[in-house]
Amino acid sequence: MHCWKTINVKKQYGADRLFFISALIGAAVFTSYYMLLAIAYAEPLSDQNFMLFMIGMLAIYPVHKLLHLVPLFGSRKCLKISIRKQLKLCPTISLYIKEPVRKSRFMLSLVLPFSAINTTIVVLSIFWPAYSHYFAILLAYHSALCVTDLIYMRNLARSPRHALIEESDTGFEILVPQPMA
């Protein structure tokens, strides 16, 4: 096996630029989705169940990280999970892959939280249009969380089909088998 490419989005884009891109995408998703819901439903908005909304806001991040793990359950030995506090306040959950994983499995791991959580939020907003403003905020927040995953997806989509993905100190390495001579 040899390394076809190494991807380190935080080094490539920088933490500030990633935060800015995430904030822009979150604002764009909120604005467009809220306007779409406001046009589709004339029902008055309700500010009841604010505590459920706050629980949803707090639950999205850990559920997002857990959904990253679901496609990788078959290879539990190669996963390492660490929880660190950032700014002495916010816990961050980091997932590390210690052994190479098939590209298709890794891409499924990247896209599963985006598709599952966003689909759930959209469906809930259709069933309860009185809380569409809450769902628009949740959708925007989660879409902003997914920016890094989507950037990795874009990079991996261009890689060879039968590649393996491995994490190293420098980022994710795309490994391809060497042809037999």
Helices and strands, with pairings:
Layout: E1 2-7, H1 9-13, H2 15-40, H3 50-69, E2 79-86, E3 90-97, E4 101-102, H4 103-127, H5 132-145, H6 147-157, E5 164-168, E6 171-176
Walk me through this protein's architecture.
This protein is α+β, with helices and mostly antiparallel strands and 181 residues long. It has one domain. Helix content is 56%, strand content 19%. The protein contains 6 helices and 6 strands. A 4-stranded antiparallel β-sheet has the order 1-6-5-4. A two-stranded antiparallel ribbon has the order 2-3. Helix 3 runs antiparallel to helix 4 and helix 4 runs antiparallel to helix 5. It starts with a strand and ends in a 5-residue tail after the last strand. This is DUF3267 domain-containing protein. Keywords: Membrane, Transmembrane, Transmembrane helix.
Q: How is the biggest beta sheet arranged?
A: 4 strands, antiparallel
Percent range for helical residues? 55-70%
Structural class, by secondary structure, is: alpha+beta
What percent strand?
Answer: 15-25%
Number of helices: 6
Task: Give the tags.
elongated; DUF3267 domain-containing protein; DUF3267; 181 residues; transmembrane helix; alpha+beta; membrane; four-stranded antiparallel sheet; 6 helices; two-stranded antiparallel ribbon
In short:
The relative contact order is 0.22. β5 (164-168) and β6 form a beta hairpin.
